[in-house]
Design a protein that fits this description.
VC0802-like, alpha+beta, 33% strand, 7 strands
Amino acid sequence: MSSAIPIPTEQGYSPPSVRQFAVFLDNKVGKLLELLKLFEDDSMVNVAALSVMDSSDHAVVRMIFSNADAARHLLRKNNYTFSELDLIVVQIGQGQSLTKLCLHLLGAELNIRFVYPVLMRAASEPCVALAVDDTYLAGQILLRKRFTLLGEEDLS
């Protein structure tokens, strides 16, 4: 199975993206704590964003880390079931809003699949993680509209 490699623009630049891990947990008391402790005890990786969706039997914990490779290693080593997805992290600066962000993406007919806040960031402005139909195109549009996009290196 080959993974898609983003093709750089004519300027030779691809918008930054981050890797999200969707970790599957039994919906039982203490399971989220066990997962979080795994990363708290490791100095190589920090949880930068977190979102939990639950049902009666299981929970899906969406996570972004400061070091995706180290996080992947820890999850595999501890036998967690997970999937991965590329997202964009967008800083909502002065004069910008989630509404404007959504309008710009709507103008390109891009669907926002989900969004959640980022806990850890280098900037003082609020940031959100976005899953969209086309991460590359969304990144290009938001950069043209003067939004700041963050990569993994910005989350440490």
